[in-house]
Amino acid sequence: MELKSIRQQKLEELQKQQQAAQAQDFINQQLEGVKKTVLQRWLTTEARERLAMVKAAKPALAQQVETSIFELAQAGAFQEQIDETRLKDILNQVSEEKKNFRIIK
After folding, report:
1. Does residue 53 form part of some domain?
2. What CA–CA distances, in Å, run from 28 to 37, 82, 84, 95?
3. pLDDT per residue as tens, the chain (105 positions)
4. pLDDT value at position 97?
5. How far is it, in rounded angstroms, from Cα 15 to Cα 20?
6. pLDDT at site 8
7. C-alpha closest to that of 7 among 19, 20, 15
8. For residue 37, what are the domain limits?
9. For the whole model, what pTM was predicted?
10. Does 49 reside within a domain?
11. Are 61 and 94 in contact (CB under 8 A)?
C-alpha cells in the first residue's frame, strides 16, 4: 500500500512539473510574439536586417539588444523608428558594456 501511494504522489508531482513547464513555455511564446511586434514597429527594415545578421553571428548580443530595445519602447523612450545607424550605435554601446566589467570580491 505504501509503495502505491508513493508512486501516485510521484506521478502527481511530475504532472504538476510538466504543467508548470508548459505554462512557462506559453508565457515565453507570448512574450516573444509581443517583442517581435515591438521590434517590427520600432526598427526600420534595414535595422531589422542588420539585427538579423548580428543574431546569426552573435545570438547573445542580439538577444541583449532586442531586450533593451523592447524595454525602452515599453518605457516610451522612442519618438521615431530606429534606423540602421542608430542600431549600430546601440550595438556598439552594448558591446562596450559587456567588455567593461569588473569582478568584485
Report:
1. yes
2. 14, 25, 28, 25
3. 688 899 999 999 999 999 999 999 999 999 889 999 999 999 999 999 999 999 999 999 999 999 989 998 889 888 899 999 999 998 988 888 766 666 666
4. 73
5. 9
6. 92
7. 15
8. 2-99
9. 0.69
10. yes
11. yes
b/e code 25-45 from CB counts within 10 Å (16+ = b): eeeeeeeeeebeebbeebbbe
State the residue for C-alpha cell 513547464: 21
Give the span between the Cα atoms of 62 and 9, in whole angstroms.
43
CA distance 54 to 100: 20
Alpha helices, DSSP H only, in the chain?
Answer: 2-42, 45-57, 59-74, 84-99
How many domains would you assign to the chain?
Answer: 1
CB atoms within 10 A of CB 80: 8
Within 8 A by CB and 6+ apart from 18, the residues are: none
